[in-house]
Records
---
Amino acid sequence: MRSTNICRFCRYCALGLGLNLLIVESIADASGVSTSAALRPSPGARSSGVQFGDGVLSVNAKDVALIELLDEIGRRSGLTVVPLVTLAQRVDVTFDRLPLEQGLRQILRHRSFALKYTPTTRGQARAETLWILPQGDEKYEAQGPRLANASSNKVGQRNIDDEISQLRSTLSNSDSEYRQQAAVELGAQANVNAVSPLRQALTDSDADVQQAAIFSLAQIGGTESALALATALHDSNPRIREQAIEALGDVGGAVAMGLIEKALTDDVAVVRLAASETLEQLRGTGR
């Protein structure tokens, strides 16, 4: 992720795709929101420290695990929270009656995240899915049940094939962060038709996009995903090859094992070690 002291907001609808995906890059202390106006006690907060109603969020949390706070907000607002990275930090957050999006920016002002919207019957947009993204050297972490929930909430009456086609088009966008989020969203489809565009994303010039594609293929699983991951095993970046091996370990099966065995002869020692350890784990679990 690029370091920045500003928040950038980009919507897919601006590209004519109508997906209303809000990408937020929020690093360091600047959140674009006046803390003097937003951070003040919430006298009516419940014991949980979270109140939500009519699109307005109030939080009064002291030394609370970030993931627990986000899960509570998700339960009260109907937002599906999908952390794609381990969230170990604890936070102190206090504000009263902020719009949901603005409140999330306050809570996640030190993190990168993406917020997806869906249209309502009144023609407005409702926040539907929140992804917490890796930063720097952080790794994508599997969140299978959460991704499954995100996918089931998201599908509704939409045509999945049309959405996959739109996301495939986004993989050609000049902005790497659009491409990264498209790769994440393709994985959330949990559909084998998403494998082909994800294979395309494995050859992206940006390592974050490649990493997102690897993660998504591991989430989709199956033989087709394993075959697609073979592309990443030939990447010039040893780290991408190592991550592909780890993803193949998550996919499992005879095809995945065969590909991992070929990686035992990789030119880089750390990649060979990853292959050896992953094979040992697969054989131990009988996958």
---
Amino acid sequence: MNKPLRVLILEDSERDAEMIAAELDRAGIHSVSQRAESEEQFEHALREFTPDVIVCDHALPQFNSIAALKTIQAVRPTAPMIVVSGALDERTAVACLRAGAEDIVLKGNLQRLPSAIESAIRVRQRLERLTPRQIEVLRFIAEGHTNREIARRLELSAKTIESHRGEVMKRLDVHDIAGVVRYAVRVGLVTPEVEEI
């Protein structure tokens, strides 16, 4: 990458955040990072710091990775989130992945983080070709809405939605609706309902 990778670290431990940044440096990933440790700081950083990737501790007091994913989907859906945790039981890990986390890396195995980040960014590169309106349309398509329903919700004509739909498929290089849905689920734009943990 020519420009530094912007990494938002949602972590209440400054030491753990430094270990994450050090691991990226060790792997030769040119990055600039910012740490947030509360929901308010996190949402502000999503808007102002505009991260390329989010690394998130699962169990922050009063704000876990599932809640963070909901905020990401609302504010910066193109940014992947990787959960980094000291320990995670199977049920929690499944809930995080179903909610849209790209990957889970244990703090005891941080050397896996750089490859997880590179993989997450590669998957989302096509998403960056879309405008914010096209991302909205993509989300509605993946949720199963018809062109007419999407048009009504966005207060646009059905013809405009059809045009957006064609452009979304072209820019994502996807040739059918099943592929559109698979991609939207893969990048966390739509997720099944998950129970809070």
---
Amino acid sequence: MKKINRTNKIQILLSIVFLGIIISCMPSDKEPKNNGDNFGFKVETLASGLESPWGLEFLPDGRILIVEKPGRLRIWENGVLIPEAIGGLPAVWPHGQGGLLDVKMHPDYLQNGWLYFAYSSPGPGGGNTAIGRGKLEDKRITNFEVIFQGQPYSSGAVHFGTRIVFDAQNYLYTTIGDRGEMPNAQNLGNHNGKVLRLFDDGRVPQDNPFVGVEGAMPEIWSYGHRNIQGMVFNRASGDLWTHEHGPKGGDEINIVIKGANYGWPLATFGVNYSGTIISNNTSLPGMRDPVLQWTPSIAPCGLEMITSDKFPNWKGNLLVGALAGQHIQRVVLDGQVVVHTEKLLQDFARFRAVKQGPDNLIYALTESPGLFIRLVPEK
């Protein structure tokens, strides 16, 4: 047998190590591919000192509306955050995670002037999420009316949701979390743990999936959700994308379809905060699986789909605000499939809202500290 000298042994070992490196770097069909879409941008701080800002909206005249959870509506105008809050809104129930949670302009705002607000409303036994609308006149909301009130009221301090979006036919979609009571999400007899669909005046569309079903709330569009705090339409495909908080692990991105059950709490990747098991199932027949799940949790809040030519490498991507994760997560899609994720602005702050502006730049709200910022591409 031919003897292997010390030099040959070293060469063989190096070859094995080198081969191992090559194999470890080869893409796996089971893992998302990194497309290498790095894109330079800078952050501009537009306002500071906000108290728990939750949502923002861009008015046609260039002003920007910001809602603060304690119940204040603020205006950013000509580069300045106006100190005085806008009057005319109803008293909110600023209880735990509840408060003033979102603002959205009607698609025909230039014709009708309606602004829509999501907020926690007090009622017998506590409160629940409500949707109201009014008109901005002389720095005051007028003609305010409640068009939807979530039921039942409860004393719980968590999982109010919520976001407001309109589809191409001007139907209004909103969300309420399970309000801290897991069984709510599977019970069609309440609004909690659901995506809800309404006409823009609060009436119930008769083609909603549970209209006429005994014991079911007719506003329900989908169910089995824990706590949705991000929702956006893909205008090109019509898909409704949402994300929701899991417990300890199991945050999800979903594509919401009519009448579907999204599993909570019967199927989940998360566990209780104590570490005990909620369900042994991550998937069940007849229930929709998430497009993406995060374990450990990033605590997603705020969701946008980028269409801007100013961020060409991000077109068609989702941007997700992360509270516990303290970053914005870029989610790269191939149709309805996630192919890559990337963390932006890691450890910058807790991100509460992310939105593309009419100028095609990207705006965000953070808490702790309460900032209003803008992402601008570097030339």
